[in-house]
Amino acid sequence: MKVVLAEKPSVARDLAGFLGARARRDGYLEGEGYQVTWAFGHLVTLQEPDDYDSTLKRWTLEALPIVPDVFRLKLTGDDRARQQFEVVKGLMLAADELICATDAGREGELIFRYIVEMAKCTDKPISRLWLSSLTEIAIRDAFSKLRPGSDYDSLHDAARSRSEADWIVGMNATRAYTVRYGRSGVLWSVGRVQTPVLALIARRDDEIRHFVSEPWFEVRTRYREVVFNYRGDRFSKEDDAKQLVALIVDKSFTVDRVEGKEEKVPPPQLFDLTALQREMNTRYGISAADTLNKAQALYEGKAITYPRTDSRYLTSDMRASMPALFRKIAASYKDAVDGLDLAKLSASARIFADNKVTDHHAIIPTGRPPRDSTDRRVYDAIVIRTIAVFYPPCKKDVTIVDGRVEGVKFRARGVRVTDPGWTALYPKPKAGDKDSDAEQELPRFERGEMGEHTPEIKKGETRPPPHFTENSLLGAMETAGKLVEEEHLKEALKARGLGTPATRAAIIETLLRRRYIRRDKNTLTVTDLGRYLVALIQDPILKSAELTGEWEAKLKAIEGGELARDVFMGEIGAFTDAFLANGDASRFDGARIGGCPRCGADVIEGRRAYGCSKWKEGCEYVLQKDYESHEIQPRQASELLQRRISLRPVRVGEQPSILCLTDAGRVLHVAQPAREHQKAPPKAKRKAPAAPKPKRNGAAKTSEGACCPLCNAPMIERDKSYSCSAHRTGCRFVIWKEIAGKKITKPMAMKLLTKGKTQVLKGFRSKSDKKFDARLKLEDGCVGFEFE
């Protein structure tokens, strides 16, 4: 008996229908020598740390790093999923051959291999079914080309490496930052991919927040109702622009050159998943996750090919099948298909390129209409794009006219579309500025002609970069944060992206769900909680989009058999050790202020600011002492410059805030995290010891009901003080048990903490050994005297 395992029940039904396995059983379909069963996505996952060692239920820094020698698996999901696994396991144990029919990609391979391993069936013969579509023709073709499972061992190695790497980095980083900084009951979730994406958004918001607009003035002139732009740079001062206008006013305009040429704009390429998500977000505001869900539904409905692809090309052997595809979709898209000559379809390398198709080709329709007609926007976009790539280019006549006035040079540019080509399939763009030289139609000009003109000054201001949309963020993730314009650079960097086309939408949704970012209409911005986390992460490596992109490229290399899995996992272990070391609070040096964010030199204190010690060499970095009416003390300046965050709350506005330092070295404040945010896991309960252990010197016990006035963490009693329990993360609040020669009892300390001051206490002694009476008072987080 051959057992076929699909990833979802709907796919299993399609495969069973083709194979003739029509007898329904509990959790599978049977017939014609096949048993077709299914998973519900991930039925098996990696075990948690406390599954290896129960003592790891308690989160401590001493237990890190946690890196299992051999990763173990466990069942996941609800009772229904567990029951289905038992069905799958029973079928596999009795099978003669296993056929992997999960999604054809990294995650699909991992789902199958984990289930086989958990079922203890790794010694069974395995074949791989590689599907790009669920049509009957595609299924028949895939079964005729079954390959040994061992051919996909490299894909499995990459999938397992990704899974284990995310476990190691995410588990260790989340525990480290939560233990160090989660004292308000906040769980800080840190991930190998999600954290660099969060840092990208925070960095963009910083640029916008601190952007200072500057005015600009552009000189242009009108000749024969055509706008000619000055060919020099814009002016930053209006007087300079007016001086230029004064030189040319009432002088004749002369045409020096008239040049015309034809420009061709080729059609866009076919969709991969990321390009489809960006298109739908730009045109309709549909989120990346919703686009993926709709595309997956279309795939399972046999309307489109496999959507989780990173290729925008087709294989050369698909060329012959394209006319038949267009004939199938012509009934619903007659006007668009009528523009094609099906006998002479393009064979351009922008469409067909075998060397640019790896696991899957670009997304195209199958010719079968979708079952659900309530929202066809994703399907329509795929169909129109597939037709458009075979259309001729858009042709334009471009005319450039150069002129001058008293030696001052001007230029006008006009564009006229002579053949819309593929653009006829898309809505015309909205008309922009009527005075835009790119949109104006030019009359016929003759070289040497002269006439009157009207100069003018156009005013404007520089604008900050726009907030990320899902479209622009997906583009940044695709190129590992390298926002470039050149297409060849984008193509070269594509293999170094953050995440994969199939996971990018989930990363964005995870950040939204954890409230690290917010979605406002179509823009994505960082929340105070997200900004707080970015500031907490001291090691820039953990926030590096480029480095994480390189890791994705290495996973690709593992898939291709070009890199050993052990080498990659060794790098992950070294990376984990590095960020755990760099994030250690003990690395803080209270004896120095810190390093300059721009050049790395020491920062020194001045009367009104902290500045770079290399100011004579030209570094202009300055950290002002006054921020929103709050004076930044040297200790805070040291924390900001060394850790990028000062954990001592300050009052900015109406609520306690935390000061952070951006990558550019600018100070900003964020709200102190609320207690009700994702709560950290409770520490494991310990059994009471058989006999009380003697108290060690310096051991601490909690001062019940008292919290630190600086950071709100619990206070603890020590041998010589009542101290903040968050002392390891930088809070230095303390009430000494002896102040000015007087013993401070616990009731006195508790009253000081809860009321802000004590009653008048007698018996203090000054430095000159004179007795005095005073109250102890809390002021700005410090203990001082208040005299009657």
Would you write up a description of this structure?
- The protein has 788 residues and is of the alpha+beta class.
- 31% of the residues lie in helices and 23% in strands.
- The chain has a 7-stranded mixed sheet with strand order 2-3-4-1-7-8-9, with helices on both faces. The protein has a 7-stranded antiparallel sheet with strand order 15-12-13-14-11-10-16, with helices on one face. A 4-stranded antiparallel sheet has the order 28-29-30-31, covered by helices on one side.
Describe the structure concisely for a colleague.
The chain is α+β, with helices and mostly antiparallel strands and 788 residues long. The protein contains 21 helices and 36 strands. It is 31% helix and 23% strand.
Mean model confidence by pLDDT? 86
Give the strand order of the largest sheet, numbering strands 1, 2, ... along the chain.
2-3-4-1-7-8-9
Distance between the termini: 94 Å
Low-confidence stretches: 433-437, 483-493, 684-704
Structural class: alpha+beta
Helical percentage: 25-40%
Characterize the largest beta sheet: strand count, sense, and whether it forms a barrel. 7 strands, mixed
**Helix count?**
21
Q: How many DSSP E strands?
A: 36
Strand content: 15-25%
What is the overall silhouette? flat
**Oligomer state of the chains in this structure:** single chain
